[in-house]
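Following the same procedure, the fold was encoded as tokens, giving this record:
***
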Amino acid sequence: MKELQSKIIFVFSILIIIISLVLPIFFLYSSEMSTYSTSRASGIGSVKLSVASVCGDGSCDAATEDCSSCSQDCGGCPAASTGGTGGSSGGGGGISKLINFVFDPDLIDEKFEQGESFEKIINVKNIGARFVYIILKVSELEDMIFLDKKELDIAKGNSDEFLLSILVAENKEPGVYLGDVIGKVGDFEKNLMLVISVFEKDALIFVDVDVDEDSASVQPGDKVMGTINITSKYNESVSASIEYSIKDKDKNIISSKEESIYLASGETIFKQGLKTDKDLDPDYYFFYTIVSYDSKNYEDADAFKIEESEEYLFSGRDIIYGIIVFLALLLLLILVYVFRRKLFKFGIPFGRKKKKKEEEIKVEGIRAITPTVKKLAQLKLKLNKENYDEKLIKEYFDIMRHFFSNYYSISYRFTFQELSRELTQRKIKSKTRIISFINVISDLSYLESTMSKSEFKGLLDRTISLVKSLRPHEIKKIKKKSKKK
């Protein structure tokens, strides 16, 4: 009855542990799936019923309602405020959900010779909760950047586009120019970053900087690696100085270093790395390289992005789940310790391994000891009275073969070499001593004719002693068995 109760307690405890471990995973998975389903529902087309919207029905219809005409459904219009990072500003999380849009791409990084031009279609998607009226404006690069549209009117979930043209004048001063295309909805804005590198026509030195793919997006404090390609059109090597630097949008230097280099004619390609500061805000930054030679500067830059630090803050729910899992594991360890003997029966080893028990010699084997000792004693008397010959040695081998056959319950006819191999595989008393003795007999069986009378007599004495030594312990075993009966 007690054994049945302990089994029930054990199984019930295991079920509790399994449930306590699975439930947190299930709830986490459910919450993730819920978020995923919501995001999928907002991005996938679905069948909609056309119902006339009414202000106050709890639904903000982007086609007919906005924050000014129906604040009950669409919320209040954003108050004047600035802030945010990464090329956007707004009045907090609530406004960014109501009014939000993205540029695709959000970075234009191009290189031009003087007099060249370029065109690019920019897509703008409304990802907010209402329609947006976006005013587009070029900042810093008005002499090079031209837009075919100045305004965009985009319904919720829809996209629009505009054509961005870059025209570099023939007399534009070589260098790296930074600017933005700013999209504004009231006081909320997003920026399209522009990096324009202008090179002199027929310049004798050309610099090209490419931030490595692994460094295109990094954490504050990370090292940024760039590949530097310098092409020299001089016919001989020249000694130039190079400045490497990381700068922000306002061209403030974050980190830098300088070195001198001999530029061979043709291409010189190498890698260079600079560390960022740990306190940098998420935004675009720029890896500059400036080569100075013969009172002229040749420069290029490539953009990379500082992402927000990946610091995970544990929520109250995470802490509770952690405590549940810890207690479940602790309970499991306690159960394993309490029921370790039960688990051992299922083949799970705990603690020290028990030594394999020695074989118990059968009664028939024990009974063979006394007759064998008598036969060996008689053989010893024959040795003293009769002539010593091979018949006595053969008789000895027959006696020992018969004894070991009975004592160890071996049913087949064996050589002493085979007997040694057989007993090596078995767990027997005085194993080393007996196998060593059998090996001696095995060797002598091949050298019968070379054994002297005195050597044979010594072998008989040693054999009688060995056989007698097997008796006392075995007799005790028999007596114990008889008492149990």
User: Anything to note?
Assistant: Residues 363-484 form one domain. The mean pLDDT is 78. The radius of gyration is 47 Å.
